[in-house]
Amino acid sequence: MPLTVVQLLPALEGGGVEQGTLEVARELVRCGHRALVIAAPGRMVQAIVEAGAEHIPWKVGEKAARVLRYLVPLRRLLRERRVDILHARSRVPAWLALTVWRSLPPSRRPRFVTTFHGLYSVNRYSAVMARGEAVIAISDTVRDHIRYCYPWVEERRIAVIHRGVDPLHYAYGYDPPSDWRVAWERDMPMLAGRFVLTLPARISPRKGQDDFLALIAALRERGIPVHGLLAGGADRPERLSALEGEIGARGLNEHVSHLGHRADLREVMAASNLVLCLSKAPEAFGRTTLEALSLGVPVIGYDHGGADEILTRVFPEGRTPAGDLQALVAKTLDFILRPRTVPRLHHPYTLRAMLDRTTALYESLHQSRER
Prior knowledge:
Layout: E1 4-11, H1 16-30, E2 34-40, H2 45-50, E3 54-56, H3 71-80, E4 85-88, H4 91-103, E5 111-116, H5 124-127, E6 134-137, H6 140-149, E7 158-160, H7 178-187, E8 195-200, H8 209-221, E9 226-231, H9 237-249, E10 256-258, H10 265-270, E11 274-277, H11 287-295, E12 299-302, H12 305-314, E13 319-320, H13 325-337, H14 351-370
Parallel strand pairs: 1-2, 1-4, 2-3, 4-5, 5-6, 6-7, 8-9, 8-11, 9-10, 11-12, 12-13
Helix pairs in contact: 1-14, 3-4, 8-13, 11-12
């Protein structure tokens, strides 16, 4: 029987949450289900629509009282569309969804699902993500976080569904198209003859850009011809200004390039010699770590969180002690002098596995209601 599934998230600008939402929506449509996505508009709306899903442009992620204006419309939508699964992927949308869900008679409620996409601060506000009838953890790290911080969550409600990549899209040994290569070499002539290190992450004190700059500076001091690429947008202008100031203060204007948000991040990573994951706090998963390894590009990352799970299973030699700059410099220098080869991946982190487990969860919840 076809299902009607609603996914709620703050916006469709881009990122791991948005990518997962798109992938699940596309799979639902492929399987003959109906997919609705409620989120503020953004650069990924066209992809959502092209996937065959319906986009409802409500700003359900607003951290203000005006978000309550969606309570009545959401309640009406759940009734009129006969929604089977209500899936909240962020905290404000989850509070909105939970409030409406509880207002419905039990016999009229859709099944309520939440996904922990992050290692949220532990408080009543974040606890809403543990209120789903099913609670998806995107990694073992997240599952352990839920167990420790919310011990009242029954184990049967927690479903570990790792994020995954499409091994055809992130093909091992992928070589970007020639026209992309021509444009890249034209726009980035400073990379010629350099060992290229890339940090794919939004500009934030949590993402390790300062450690990356310290690494580039240390390698330059040793006479190593490297160039650093920072691939990620800044959601606050002051963060970008601070980054540019730090680059200048370290004398790295000729050795570090900020690329901003990139729709061609796959190509950028494929054209790099090494990808870094230097988040100060543990990552919930570490999608770019997996994407780079799937491409066959070596990754060095701090040994904590979801990214460390991936490295431990796929490329353990890329692990380095979190926050230890000397160890980071030493390992990077070793990788430059003795290049590593990433093994062809045989692991559970595939898009197919993620989609199969997610749709199976939806169907299981729906069937248990029918019984």
